[in-house]
Amino acid sequence: MICDGEIKYHEQDGYSDYPAERTQAENEHVRQARRFAKWHVYKERGYETLPRHENPDCLVAAMIAVSALSSDTVEGHFGDLRTQLESHYDDSSLDLPFDDAHPDDVFIYRKDLYLSPDPLTEDSSLAEQYNDLAAEIRADLSAVFDESDNLEHQLTSLFNHEDRLETELPSFDLEAVSEMHSLHTDGRTEQTTTAESPLDREPDAQIELPPLNLEQFELFKLLLVTNLSAQVRDRFLMMGEEPPEAFQHQGFGTYRGTIKQQINDMYERYYLFSESPSTWTPTRS
Questions:
Q1: Distances (CA, A) of 10 to 2, 17, 19, 20, 141
Q2: Which of 50, 99, 125, 239 has the maximum number of C-beta atoms within 10 A of its C-beta?
């Protein structure tokens, strides 16, 4: 808007226009608005405004692809990641990716995922499709358990619903996986390694995991899918939005999302399994 010869459209009465003059919370609210605007433009106009590994639809496609993998294929693609995570807790030799790193520092281990077909060619949002179907399954199972006290009937119903997420959603293949790469921080500085892309394009998703005691996880594949699902959660939180119900669960998602949950009071610590959130909506100013 132009008023008295001056451009006024960018002015607002809330936060300062200068980041240095805003509080940490105010800066995060501004970033949330920018992230949500990119998501809105992508959804409403179809423009690829987000990096793919930050797009909830691509992350859901990766969840679908990884869920369909056999145990042998999971080991073939992610065995190096499993070994590295375990090496922080077992008695094997710990091979740190940086010469100046200490074992007690923070490490994040990553693998890039490339999918086929292109997740962004879907006519409707994969995140919404997944959430809607998950809600239907929960409702159907609730009806079964409410209506019958016959254990055999209940177990049969569970098995009948087991594959619905796989059979009623679009299918995706894991076309390629990068070599493992990593991030390290000692609390003052960050450094990263990179992985050469196995394909000449941007990855569709990225596994991000800190060192974990894998004895507490019965299935490594489930941990990978849970990480991708928690990344969807973090992406909505970082837009200032409540995540869809299917993604309202605890666990480590994104490294950046975890840092925000640690330093910003507007977020609860969703990355922790040990703390039950009181709300799934970031505090608004």
A1: 10, 9, 14, 17, 50
A2: 239
